[in-house]
Amino acid sequence: MAAAGAGRLRRAASALLLRAPRLPARELSAPARLYHKKVVDHYENPRNVGSLDKTSKNVGTGLVGAPACGDVMKLQIQVDEKGKIVDARFKTFGCGSAIASSSLATEWVKGKTVEEALTIKNTDIAKELCLPPVKLHCSTSLLIPTPK
């Protein structure tokens, strides 16, 4: 099961990264945009920052980077014996949108089964945070790792 879960996680990470838009050089020099208040709230008051015990059999860890801007995100979930996500933690190195997306994702997955959590799309996160299209790649933190 561990090998199948790890394979599923890698495929999910690859699929999300392939969907992330690539920014043309002219957009990289665009004027600064103001963040929506939801992004600012999750950036200034991030929820569920930290790590879980990665050696625990009911903890899954996912790691992804967004090549468009250099963001790196780690998401961990802890699943109970019934398959429900009972805890989620993240660590993100990146912009405010990436940190806010990771924070929101941890809130959304708690209480869901892994299968339910896998239905969350990065576009759902981006829509909730009112991210502009140029920041869609920042919402790839929703990769739901599968426990070992």
Automatic annotation (TrEMBL):
Residues 35-140 form the NIF system FeS cluster assembly NifU N-terminal domain. Keywords: Iron, Metal-binding, Transit peptide. One of its GO terms (cellular component) is mitochondrial [2Fe-2S] assembly complex. Coiled coil: none annotated. GO terms for biological process: [4Fe-4S] cluster assembly. GO terms for molecular function: iron ion binding; iron-sulfur cluster binding. Pfam families: NifU_N (PF01592). Mitochondrial scaffold protein, of the core iron-sulfur cluster (ISC) assembly complex, that provides the structural architecture on which the [2Fe-2S] clusters are assembled. The core iron-sulfur cluster (ISC) assembly complex is involved in the de novo synthesis of a [2Fe-2S] cluster, the first step of the mitochondrial iron-sulfur protein biogenesis. This process is initiated by the cysteine desulfurase complex (NFS1:LYRM4:NDUFAB1) that produces persulfide which is delivered on the scaffold protein ISCU in a FXN-dependent manner. PANTHER family: IRON-SULFUR CLUSTER ASSEMBLY ENZYME NIFU HOMOLOG. Belongs to the NifU family. This is Iron-sulfur cluster assembly enzyme ISCU. It comes from Bos mutus grunniens.
